[in-house]
Amino acid sequence: MTDKIPVSVLVVIHTANLDVLLIERAGQPGFWQSVTGSIDAVDEPLQLTAARELGEETGIIADGQHIVLRDWNLSNVYEIFPIWRHRYAPGVTHNTEHVFSVQVPRDIAITLSAREHLQYAWLPYLAAAERCFSSSNAEAILQLPAITGLARPT
C-alpha cells in the first residue's frame, strides 16, 4: 500500500431545505461525517476527487447537469488524527482539505460503501454540524446558508 497524499476533499451533501446527509464511519462507530477522501495522485483534479468520492461513498453521481458539485474555493489545514497518521508518509502530520457541496433531492437513493460506512442519516444542518466529529466538517455545514444562499424553512 502506498502512502496517502495529505490533500483531500470534503463534500457536504444537502437538500434545498438544508437537510444534510451524514455517514457513520465503519472503522470508528459514532464518528459521523460528510463525504471525504484524498486525492489518488498529485495531479488529480480536486473536482474529480470530489466526484469520485461522492460516488464511491454514497452512490450519488455528479453528472454536471442535475447533480452539480460546487467548489467553495475554500481549504482547511488541519492536524491529522493520530489514529490515521500511519496511512501517510513518516513525519506527515497535517492535511489540506478542499471543501465542496452538492445539492440533491431528499429522496435520492443512497448506496453506502459497506467497507467504509455503517449507516447514514439526514439531519437539519444545525443538528448535522453538532453530530460531526470533525470541526472543519461542522464549520462547513454551518456555512451552508451563506455559501448556497438557501435558508431553512421555518
TrEMBL record:
GO MF term (any one): metal ion binding
Instruction: Enumerate the Gene Ontology biological process terms.
Output: folic acid biosynthetic process
Q: Does the keyword Magnesium apply?
A: yes
Q: Where is the Nudix hydrolase domain?
A: 3-145
Q: How is the cofactor bound?
A: Binds 1 Mg(2+) ion per subunit.
Q: Where are the transmembrane segments?
A: none
Q: Which Pfam families match?
A: NUDIX
Record-listed Mg(2+) binding positions? 53, 57, 116
- Check the record and name the InterPro entries matching this protein: DHNTPase, NUDIX_hydrolase-like_dom_sf, NUDIX_hydrolase_dom
Q: Which NCBIfam families match?
A: PRK09438.1 (NF006961)
What protein name is recorded for this chain? Dihydroneopterin triphosphate diphosphatase
Report the source organism: Janthinobacterium lividum
